[in-house]
From TrEMBL:
Any one cellular-component term (Gene Ontology): nucleus
Species lineage: Eukaryota, Metazoa, Chordata, Craniata, Vertebrata
GO molecular function: ligase activity; ubiquitin protein ligase activity
Keywords (A to Z) from UniProt: Ligase, Repeat
UniProt keyword annotation of Ligase present: yes
Organism field: Cnemophilus loriae
NHL repeat ranges, renumbered to this chain: 4-47
GO biological process: proteasome-mediated ubiquitin-dependent protein catabolic process; protein polyubiquitination
Keyword field contains Ribosomal protein: no
The name this protein goes by in its record: NHLC1 ligase
Length: 235
């Protein structure tokens, strides 16, 4: 792929990016980034001009995804919370930053279903004793009611391999899709009401998949940090 535009520099100015952790694009064309370096959420227009920086007492803002209404759902990994951020990005005005879920365990990646409004979050659980760390997926309805959850141990009881999820997305049919670094694969876990099923979508050619998103044409883009590449797969 060719780089079409580049913006953002490392520095201390208000719109500089110190340590980017996640990125999303709103339906009105703004790029929103979580910056772990100064614990903020920053929005840019598509020309790269900073339009808004939000520092609402975040401890460590991490993952984020945009809703169809151009609102932003984001996780605070250190605070164990999920926030809803509403803003007029055109005017650079923050309207509301509301905690919508608390008592989560190191939540990081998050995805919003563009049809149902359901939200899925990946929690990172610390191991007790000699066992390895694990992850847990929690699925919430649009009203933020918990409708499903499963951790690595539980998934291992159902599926033939241990799953350590690093990234999550919804496909256009509303199915939950995760990257798994243990099996070096991308796996579909089904819709919230049938969660979990086990359907490997990509099982070869990945080294250490850590990010994924769907494009408008339903192609799947996977960020592979194992060989420092971006891989695009047809639907």
């Amino acid at each position: 792929g060719f780089c079409l535009r580049r913006f953002g520099v490392r520095g201390d100015a208000g719109n500089d990016i110190k340590y980017a952790l996640d990125v999303t694009v709103t339906s009105d064309g703004h790029v929103v980034v979580t910056d772990g370096g100064d614990c903020s959420v920053k929005a840019f227009d598509f020309e790269g001009r900073g339009v808004l920086a939000v520092r609402e007492g975040f401890c460590l803002p991490w993952g984020l995804d945009a809703t169809p209404k151009s609102e932003v759902i984001l996780t605070d990994s250190e605070a164990g919370a999920l926030y809803l951020l509403t803003a007029d990005f055109q005017r650079g005005e923050l309207k509301k930053c509301q905690m919508i879920r608390s008592r989560l365990v190191s939540p990081r990646a998050v995805a919003v279903c563009q049809t149902s409004g359901a939200v899925v979050v990946i929690e990172h659980l610390k191991a007790r004793g000699p066992s390895k760390d694990s992850t847990r997926l929690k699925i919430f309805s649009a009203e933020m009611d918990l409708i499903g959850q499963m951790d690595s141990f539980g998934l291992n009881l159902v599926f033939p391999c241990r799953i350590y999820a690093t990234a999550v997305a919804f496909d256009k049919e509303g199915r939950v899709v995760v990257t798994d670094v243990c099996s070096q694969a991308v796996i579909c876990l089904g819709k919230p009401e049938e969660f979990p099923i086990f359907n490997p979508l990509i099982s070869h050619g990945l080294s250490y998949p850590v990010g994924l998103t769907y494009m408008a044409n339903d192609s799947l883009v996977v960020l592979d940090s194992g060989d420092h590449s971006i891989k695009v797969y047809s639907s």
